[in-house]
Fold this protein.
Amino acid sequence: MSDTLAHRLWAGTLDDPTAPGRDLARRIAGGSGYPQALADLRVLARHGLPESGALAEARRRWPQSIDLARVALDLAADADAALSDLAAVVQAQNRRLSVLARALWARGRCDEARAVLEGIDPASDSQDEDAATRAELAVLSDAPLPPLAGPKGAHLSLIADWRLGGARVLARRYDLERAGFPAHPPLWSWLVETLMTEGDHARARHAMGEFAARCVGAADVDPVRIRLALEGENPRRARKLLDALPDRDSPWRWGPRRHLQTLRCLADEIAQTDHPDYTPFRDGTGAAIRLYPGHAGLQSLHLLARELTEPRAELARALVTGPGDPRLRAATLMRLGRHAEALALLDTALPGPPDDALRLRIRRAELRLALGDLAGARDALGDRPAAAAPAADHAYWAAEIALAARDLGTAERALAPALETFPSRMGLILTAARARFLADDAPGAQALLDRFRTLKTAQIDRDPPDDLRDRIVRDAQVAGVTVDRSVARAARALALSPPAFQPVSEARIPRRIAHYWEGPRTAAIEDGLAAWAEFPQTVHDAASARLWLADHAPGLGGPFDRLSQAAARADLFRIALMAVEGGIFADLDERPRASVAPWLDKARAVLVIEQGHGTIANNFLAGEPGLALFAQARDRIVSRLAQVETPYPWWDCGPAQMTLALWPHRAEAGLRLLSQADYDARVATNLPYPHKRGPGHWR
């Protein structure tokens, strides 16, 4: 049944999804044996197909089967009733308590799950498995690890040390004790993947070598090796490894993990093309999700494929009202710029175990932060967990919220213990570097960036290119440069002491909006255009920009044509346009969720202070025609572009130059400087549009 049915599902949706269940019911009634009936029911559950009476027939014949009761939970429309039934069957036999405990744990009934395992019968045939589950749930509860011998005990001791003591403790144990680690594939698989997750790629690669040498032929060796390639941003190596696996041309025989890795590799490959077409990725995720509709990783990839290919407004409506895990749907809504809808959807999420509950808190805090609600973000995040691993996850977001409020002390107090216990987590390191920059400790920020670069080099096996953070931190260390000539000094001053808005009653910013976009108008771009339709819109591209420049700024035609990056052309053009016409300019990866008109009232110019390092953003600009601010920014950019052979848009013609241009005008009446939180309250910013996944995006 399994191979034939999987082949049909891979090819397309079944004409009658109930038919396999009805056929199975007839076979069971006709005398099918228990092992085959159980295997076939598990196939139905795995593929998300209705059992159509087969389960009832099987349970009539084998009423005491714990496995059938567990399959019933997977297939049940009423999960509570099925869970109660499973409990009755397990408790009546006082064996295989781990089956019931894991089902309770997955539904957030953690105290009940652990209580079930307190009554293990030492004479039962499941005593070893039940004791191992009891120890595992203790570790996941951050409770003391009960005594457990053997490879499973060694594995759990590593997990416990990582959770309670952090990645530093895990690395120390690996360095000192690895020779004594048992040849237990789950231990080595967990170890390599955890070291990868922690950003410790040098040890992860070493551990991969140990894993392959000690556990020859283990099923997990190839998948972990493939994940190393994917995490190392090396899809070519990942593809080579994937193609060497058995059943290359029979994907209906693959397990979920192989589908997941193949699809990740495909998405990375498509992103590297000049004109990405994600249709094959969408088709692949659609086929995989027909095989494994309940697999969270494949569900997430399928939602990503839909995000990359479908009209966004329609997709958003479907996600708000449709089926599926609310957490996954909320994550996609957030990426679509529908943060309020995502937040509401999370209220429908079912309870889960402690780590899931923390992730839910973090996601709520992230959404509140993206909505500009800093107090709400702090409340949603809640108190710091006691154990090191969940505390480090909490610390990252606590610091991000504090930095958004420019509360440097709180940010650094949150980060300090997390960096001590998890010294190679790149996200923590970069957030700490920003905090050090804002605290006027450029050498400290540089040391953190150097640490990040070392880790990133180990991850991707090459030196990463400079980013905006490298440039601004280096700028902060240049001695003897006055604030009016230092991007870093001006940005830090604006971030920590933004000037107050002085309204000007006669100010008149034109109520019209301009955009710049080169290339096809994807579903994402069309969504952005529709969202900005509050005012009359003009969309410029390279051709229309050249015509405009010829009429209004003929001296800029040459510099414009010399720029090879679309992002740099857009940066130069927007400032030239604003200097002459004023109005509003907005990037199309910004999506307003409320009117921006109130910002324009009694203002001569409206700009945004970026969250990261305090520079002046150029994704949203508003101003009266003919402002000296924009004329000087234009001239500064043209001068800068004449000095560099390969411009870096953010630095040479974007926010860095806007910051220097603004500095002399910071105290002028009519200048409204919005904080990032102010801006986020009305506009979803810097959304992850498809073009950003590949080399076409300037970053």
The chain is about 60% helix and 5% strand. The first strand starts at residue 513 and ends at 516. Residues 388-460 form a domain with the Serine Threonine Protein Phosphatase 5, Tetratricopeptide repeat fold (CATH 1.25.40).
